[in-house]
Amino acid sequence: MTDSRHRHRRPTAAVGAAVAGALLAACSGGPGGSGDAALKVSTTTAIIADLVEQVGGDRVDVTSIVPHHGDPHSYEPSPGDASTVAKSDIVFSNGLLLEEPGITKMIHNNTRKGTPKIAISEKLEEYGGTVIKLQEDLGLDVLWLGWAVEGEVAGEGSQVRVTATGLEGPGDLHVYLTDTLGTPKSYIDSADGFDGKDSFTLPPEAHTHVNWAFTEPGTYRLTVKGQTETLDGTRTDAGGGTITFAVGGMGDRGAEGRTLLGTGHADVTLNAAKGEVSVRSDDPETGKREHHAADEVVVSVPDKAKETVPKEDAYRFLGKAGDDLWVLPQAVIGKHVHGDMDPHAWEDVANAEAYVRRIEAELIKADPDGRATYRKNAAAYLKTLGKLDQEVAAKLATIPEANRKLITTHDAFGYLAKAYGMEIAGFVVPVPNQEPSAAEVEQLGDTIQDKGVPAVFLEPNLAARADVLRRVAEDQGVGICTIYGDSFDDKIHDYVSMMRHNANELAKCLAG
């Protein structure tokens, strides 16, 4: 398939039959489809498209922007997606910063005036659902450092741009992203100076993962500034500041009485409302978030963060292959922008019921003549989901309690763990696109041994990035199984089948 658009049409209006296992027809043609549909609906993901279709039946013609195999965290919309959205009567997204910001911007720019744009999970609790905080703890032995922006910013679809304006230090700094396929994208590169292009944007109250690479040991001082950007092009100054890094074998030298951050999870943070830069970190014992003023903190990049420049040509911007490099790793491969709340709420079936209630209410608002159809379909599907919730709970309850631990390639299963008595033991990705050291492989093996997990789990659309986890699992003699998070594939086409598969696979692979 070369076209990213996926239109969903059920062959019949029988909800029960479709849910029981009928495969949803999916094709990659242009927008449109059956002319008798009352509403043309766009959704950001195939999972939401399926839920809308179950409620809407033959009254809706549903198109998913992100294809079945796609990753909503990183998918870049096409002109065809924009054309489809422009013809839609209503657009459903997940919200809570699940979708790549470009998707959100495309929807804002291309929907017709007055078209409802519904971020379902952002009012989930009003419809009986629950939202939990995103838990991120990879247990890295060096600091996991990201970028974040805070503070209220006026204007729908507004972004905050952070730009590096200067660096003092003995070497160069490279801040780059490694995408899902292992290809690096440079955001900040001091080697060629700063010309105003060493920057990136984030939506308000968002956070992203990046790699920080330094070419020489010593003390570095990075200066950044911020701007808010509205969709009409208006830019407003948002302050700035300077962050200090102690790189390579310095211990606490350079800290000079300031707070030295060397482990755990932290973000270089621009507060656009206050015009201030700080480093925010999570206390490893209490989980409480703390903000350290820029002039009161030093970020440690110790000798154990020392790597070498990869041999692949795509990494030549870092230097010659084999050159020394001190790296604070991205840890999660792929563009991964999110907020404090976990957006993967559908992994708890009870939350999927809340999605359905919200979808039902919004379809009725958009198409009052279909009220009876939407209510009937929603009621039938809610009964199916209620039974599915019980089925998933019963199946996962068969797993021995000591084995109810998940090691995956993606932090998408917090809701599943909370709802069904599981534990997130980790989502494991070492330094992106680099061969792990013997010590890293040993550490990962130790984690699998210490947790006593019988299996690890790979998502089909992310399997290409899981070579290290797969290899270590094979070395440890534990199973390698499949679990679905953000998307479907050629085998799984609908939400009920996805959750049933997940429950069966977890029960089978964690049985012992």
Question: Key terms for this structure?
Answer:
single chain, 512 residues, alpha/beta, Rossmann fold, 3 domains, 6-stranded mixed sheet, Surface-anchored_actinobac, signal, Manganese ABC transporter substrate-binding lipoprotein, lipoprotein
What does it look like?
This protein is of the alpha/beta class. It is 24% helix and 28% strand. A hairpin with a 4-residue loop joins strand 17 (265-271) and strand 18 (276-282). It has 3 domains: 6-132 and 341-387, 3-Layer(aba) Sandwich (Rossmann fold), CATH 3.40.50.1980; 144-331, no CATH class; 389-509, 3-Layer(aba) Sandwich (Rossmann fold). Helix 3 packs across helix 4 and helix 6 (371-396) runs parallel beside helix 10 (495-509). The protein starts with 5 loop residues before the first strand and ends with a helix. The protein has helices spanning 15-19, 46-56, 79-86, 101-110, 349-366, 371-396, 414-420, 438-451, 467-476, 495-509; strands at residues 6-9, 25-27, 39-43, 60-64, 90-93, 117-119, 144-150, 159-168, 173-178, 184-189, 199-202, 207-209, 211-214, 218-229, 235-247, 259-261, 265-271, 276-282, 289-293, 297-301, 306-308, 324-328, 337-338, 405-408, 423-427, 455-458, 479-482. It has a 6-stranded mixed β-sheet with strand order 2-1-4-3-5-6, sandwiched between helices. The chain contains 10 helices and 27 strands. The longest helix is centred in the last third of the chain and has 26 residues, at 371-396. The model is unreliable at 1-5, 9-34 and 429-435 (pLDDT under 50).
